[in-house]
């Protein structure tokens, strides 16, 4: 079906499909103005950009610090897609709430843009999905941003700490954007390795209960060459982390979810729910190990700030994250007290 919404739970897992006439008028953008969250079957449009404070059908999917509620969801269906969306939709029961992704969005406008696909994907994959499901070729700013795509395919720089080499398949060499060093890795080698990673990600999607050893070995091999901002590599780490959570291997999940953070921060807008939940999951996983409580507190603080922007201060996830942060901080104080307590010889 065209113009249906995938209804998701608080963990952004799919639980069904819904037709929201109001939301379906919003166009797509890979740089969206807003996004959609769900509370049950209720869709909530949330802004990704600060200037959005009210619904506008020109925006890409929207909402502000205040939720735009759509009981019949007729207005939401006019919003078009963008890979750089203005807003997103949350659901609360049958209520759709439009949330802004950009600060200037303060009202609903039919020019707002929302994302019809996952933003953490290569441009070719996003365009293929949109073409197959919605019958259009996306020409949004994100899809036309060649530097963004080169970064999403980038190779690790072995000559500096924070540098990476953007990959352009039309170039013969890979040059670090920061230090200017030329990578020893050939473009064809990097492209072939990314294809292997993409195949492994697809295999894990289709056969979730398979052994994870092959995926881990491939990640270890690929991470020597591909950068932490390489989207296929990030997707593989995220799949390994999900496998760890599903199979109760939380130390494995904590290790691999941490490898995704820099890529999530780079390619998701600040107020996007996927970034909020990744921070939150990382914080929860790190809180299970006394040795990573400091990192758990850092991730939970980031989660709370991001959840306030994506879901709202009053959302249950915001309260849950704050409660867990308080517990982690208390654990850290208790452990510190145990370390400094003097030994009694008598």
UniProtKB/TrEMBL annotation:
One of its GO terms (cellular component) is nucleus. Transmembrane segments: none annotated. PANTHER family: EG:BACR7C10.4 PROTEIN, HISTONE-LYSINE N-METHYLTRANSFERASE SMYD. This is SET domain-containing protein.
